[in-house]
Design goal:
Length: about 220
């Protein structure tokens, strides 16, 4: 009778188990929430995204909201255009699904003849260091602001339908916030939106009854 030939089987090693909610698995995506803010390096502002909650962009020389004035715009024109960039991806990533932008915006001044209307467009883009690619966008409601009202503001919650999009290693997720405005009086109209990650800037922005954080949720494809 022939002897049995021993067969060696490798002992299985432990594997990391990723935890996803039932909703994540059902949708095939996992939502990552970013806060948007600004930093100042040697007098130069740069705008970026972070997954860390509660950090403070209110350092010396940095304001936690952005504002600009309309001069002669009696029809809607782009008043503010800011790009917020994530650090370049170390691995390929894919996004798809419903994103969301939550923003506090408004305008006006406590003086006569400073009325206007304003809204926000949030754009999701791809940035490769030299050119950007438009992926998806969403628009907020329009805020009508009466004259002689200080820092009249609105909370925007903007859904964004994102098609399946691939990012290569080294490419960057870019979120662009545009504020469109027009004046409805003889004077200029001041438009502004907040981007204070720690939500400490309500007074400077014009009160304490609104948050001042700027958040964007991005749905990433889960590979399971």
């Amino acid at each position: 009778m022939a002897e049995n030939i021993p067969v060696n089987f490798p002992i299985p090693t432990e594997r990391a188990i990723a935890s996803f909610s039932f909703t994540d698995l059902a949708e095939g995506t996992g939502v990552v929430e970013y806060t948007l803010g600004v930093q100042n390096v040697e007098g130069t502002e740069s705008f970026f995204l972070s997954t860390t909650a509660g950090w403070n962009s209110s350092v010396a020389g940095v304001t936690t909201y952005k504002q600009e004035e309309t001069e002669n715009d009696t029809s809607f024109a782009k008043t503010i255009d800011i790009d917020f960039d994530l650090t370049a991806f170390n691995l390929p990533r894919r996004i798809r699904g419903t994103g969301r932008c939550q923003i506090n915006f408004g305008g006006g001044e406590l003086q006569p003849n400073n009325s206007g209307e304003t809204y926000i467009i949030c754009r999701i883009r791809k940035w490769d260091g030299s050119s950007e690619t438009e992926i998806a966008s969403g628009q907020s409601q329009t805020r009508v602001i009466a004259s002689n009202v200080a820092n009249n503001r609105e909370t925007g919650n903007i859904p964004i339908t994102i098609p399946l999009t691939s990012y290569k290693k080294g490419e960057t997720l870019r979120v662009t916030i545009e504020q469109w405005s027009k004046k409805t009086s003889s004077s200029v109209f001041t438009a502004r939106f907040a981007h204070d990650p720690q939500d400490t800037d309500q007074t400077e922005f014009g009160g304490t009854d609104f948050f001042t954080t700027l958040k964007v949720q991005i749905p990433y494809v889960i590979d399971v």
